[in-house]
Design brief:
The complex is a heterodimer of chains A (425) and B (236). In chain A, β6 and β7 form a beta hairpin. The longest helix of chain A is centred in the N-terminal third of the chain and has 19 residues. With 425 residues, chain A is an alpha+beta fold. Chain A contains 13 helices and 15 strands. Chain B has 236 residues and is an all-alpha fold. Chain B has a two-stranded antiparallel sheet. In chain B, α4 runs antiparallel to α5. The longest helix of chain B has 33 residues. Chain B is elongated. Classes of the chains: A alpha+beta (425), B mainly alpha (236). At the A-B interface, β8, α13 and β15 of A face β2 and α8 of B. β15 of chain A pairs parallel with β2 of chain B, so a sheet runs across the interface.
Chain lengths: 425, 236
């Protein structure tokens, strides 16, 4: 009766993905954006053609989500690829699958920029970047005949199509561990932008300059930026006053290098850079040092094993597995709401992005933007391409004092910063 | 590109007159370190004027819901003050249940793009059954809702399933779960009928038999595809 072998493919959600269908809503979409800016104006028909070619090769993206009795699951989406549209809305808008041919991502464009917005249930930044990279390669081959002849119409040999659930694969068994903290952290509040609006600020810096400044403080680039970000919150939100609640910055860690995984699915763990302003007035260097100590203690294989053990053990519990999905959803939402207020913000670093040399002349930069979640009204990303490091702060607050302090502090440290915003005035 | 003397950063937004960070008026003159990068930044596309997607009908639905709640309370109040304790009827319960059914239909079945038609059919079946049972109970429970209405609904949904499977033949397996739901509901009715809680069992028997035949037929004829669909839906 009808369906081909490919059309019958289905897959379970990975451990991290289980949460997103439960917590996602119009105001907290769990959608993130990865963008690439090219040197040429985007041709929408060629972009659509590139998407039509690329999508079927990535099972992770070529799927729709369905509701089972006990779990959500993916199955192959037999509908045509979603239409490529011009960007007219704010970034990271909620993806309604019934309005998007059932797909959980969208592709938009504006002048020379291509945006890929992904519902986090599909994959993390690494997986999304792999898909975007192949999409851009194919698009550039279609718009530049010489590239097509030189590179051929095929996926890049660096691309992995692996769909392993690396959480389950690397589950170390039940390891005694502390539970996720539930102590409430500082929450960035204030007047909000209109519902659905998102403020985006990109700060462009010389990557080598940033590395030099970070090295002068004996920390990594990531720790330096997280430290400055934490300091900005301490200065502008806490006004350098002692606080019982800590400033806790989530720093997602890509687990693939730790476990030699090449999966396209989600495979990351959340660490937290915690800064507690207990007594004295802290300087920038004090804060960076505290953040460095906090992160260093967590970036070990043993700690990653503990995190995976804690996350997966619930999924492996047979009693919990037999609970109907609608009850699981209520329980997961309740647990999530309890732990979501334990973090102030998130800074995620996509690292130094590399593309094949043949495509480099056509690509200007990459950026990433995060949507807001419960308890976190401001988030940040770091992307480095060639010698440009771009620190992007997204927020649903009208007040920009934290962004102001952040970029001013970087300028005071000797960095040349150029700021771009999506605000019109 | 312009420069903010207060923040010591350059701003790449041609339309901005003031710094988006500190609201100081921007200077057109750039320090040398930024002049060198100007060519790079001139290529950046910026952002279009963005709008927020507003769902149509949300405000209308909220107004209707508010009016409905007011009407429900009013009807309940009228019933309460006019209720004859000897042989009165709680007619407001019937009316309010009907209003709740209308609201569920509006919110879930009509103005809801997120759920598919299968979920809407299942919810309608459950909600209509519930409404009929409420009416039956308020009017003294003669059992007609369980003996006739629900079995009739089950037969109707089974007919709809067959029709939809033929129309939507590419995704015929997505109706298997609805079939299972009909089997479960009709089996529950059959059990109640066996225990003499339902007056008259002919329609219940027919509904149960038809549901099981359709499900078993789908299982046999559908083969591996049907089994895979059930594996997916019920995987633990």
């Amino acid at each position: 009766m009808g369906l081909t072998e490919k059309e019958m493919k289905w897959d379970k959600l990975d451990n991290t993905a289980l949460l997103f269908p439960v917590i996602a809503s119009e105001s907290r979409s769990s959608v993130y954006r990865i963008s690439v800016t090219l040197t040429q104006e985007i041709q929408p028909d060629k972009l659509q053609e590139a998407l039509n070619w690329t999508l079927p090769q990535f099972d992770i993206f070529h799927a729709r989500i369905r509701r089972g009795m006990f779990w959500y699951y993916f199955e192959t989406n037999t509908r045509p690829a979603p239409a490529v549209r011009e960007e007219i809305y704010y970034p990271c808008r909620y993806i309604e699958d019934h309005q998007n041919n059932g797909y959980m991502f969208r592709v938009t464009y504006h002048k020379t920029r291509i945006n890929l917005e992904v519902f986090h249930v599909l994959t993390d930044g690494m997986g999304a970047f792999t898909f975007l990279r192949e999409l851009v390669y194919q698009y550039l081959r279609l718009t530049n005949e010489d590239l097509m002849q030189k590179m051929g119409e095929k996926l890049c040999s660096d691309t992995s199509l692996n769909k392993e659930d690396s959480y389950l694969k690397n589950y170390p068994g039940n390891i005694p561990h502390k539970k996720y903290k539930t102590q409430r952290a500082v929450e960035l509040g204030g007047e909000f932008l209109p519902k659905g609006a998102l403020s985006v600020m990109h700060g462009y810096m010389d990557a080598d300059q940033v590395k030099k400044v970070a090295k002068s403080k004996n920390v990594s680039v990531n720790t330096f930026l997280v430290g400055v970000y934490t300091y900005s919150i301490y200065k502008e939100h806490l006004h350098k006053q002692p606080s019982e609640k800590p400033v806790s910055i989530c720093v997602p860690v890509n687990l693939r290098p730790y476990y030699e995984s090449i999966t396209m699915k989600n495979f990351f763990a959340m660490t937290a850079a915690v800064f507690e302003a207990r007594e004295k007035e802290y300087s920038l260097d004090d804060v960076i040092h505290i953040v460095d100590e906090s992160l260093k203690s967590q970036l070990t294989k043993e700690h990653m094993d503990q995190l995976i053990s804690y996350n997966v053990s619930n999924q492996k519990n047979m009693v919990l597995r037999m609970v109907p999905l609608f009850i699981k959803n209520i329980a997961m939402k309740w647990v999530y709401h309890g732990s979501a207020l334990a973090n102030t913000s998130t800074v995620t670093n996509l690292g130094r992005i590399a593309v094949k040399q043949a495509y480099e002349p056509y690509i200007l930069n990459f950026t990433a933007t995060l949507s807001m979640t419960k308890g976190q009204n401001m988030k940040a990303t770091v992307c480095t391409y060639q010698n440009h490091l771009i620190f992007t702060i997204s927020s649903k607050l009208t007040d920009h004092s934290i962004q102001k302090c952040f970029f001013q502090t970087l300028a005071k440290e000797g960095l040349s910063v150029t700021v771009e915003t999506n605000e019109e005035s | 590109m312009k420069y903010c003397k207060h923040c010591k950063v350059s701003i790449h937004n041609a339309k901005l007159q003031v710094c988006p960070l500190c609201q100081t008026v921007l200077d057109d003159e750039l320090p040398q370190e930024f002049e060198e990068e100007k060519e790079y930044f001139m290529q950046l596309p910026g952002y279009p004027p963005a709008s927020v997607l507003r769902k149509k009908y949300t405000m209308l639905l909220r107004i209707i819901t508010f009016i409905a709640v007011c009407v429900m309370l009013l009807l309940a109040f009228i019933n309460y003050i006019s209720y004859d304790r000897g042989n009165g009827i709680l007619w407001a319960v019937i009316a309010d249940a009907g209003i709740v059914y209308l609201l569920i239909t509006l919110w879930f079945s009509i103005f809801n793009a997120e759920e598919g038609h299968v979920a809407k059919i299942a919810v309608q079946c459950i909600v209509v059954s519930g409404l009929c049972v409420i009416i039956d109970v308020v009017l003294g429970f003669q059992g007609w809702s369980l003996a006739y209405v629900i079995p009739g609904l089950i037969l109707l949904v089974n007919a709809l399933i067959i029709l939809l499977m033929l129309i939507n033949i590419k995704n015929w397996s997505s109706y298997i779960v609805l079939q299972i739901e009909m089997v479960v509901i009709s089996a529950a009715l059959a059990a109640l009928s066996y225990l003499d809680h339902i007056p008259g069992d002919l329609l219940t028997l027919i509904a149960t038999t038809v549901s099981m035949i359709i499900f078993i037929g789908t299982w046999i004829v559908g083969g591996r595809v049907a089994r895979t669909e059930i594996n997916r839906r019920f995987h633990v």
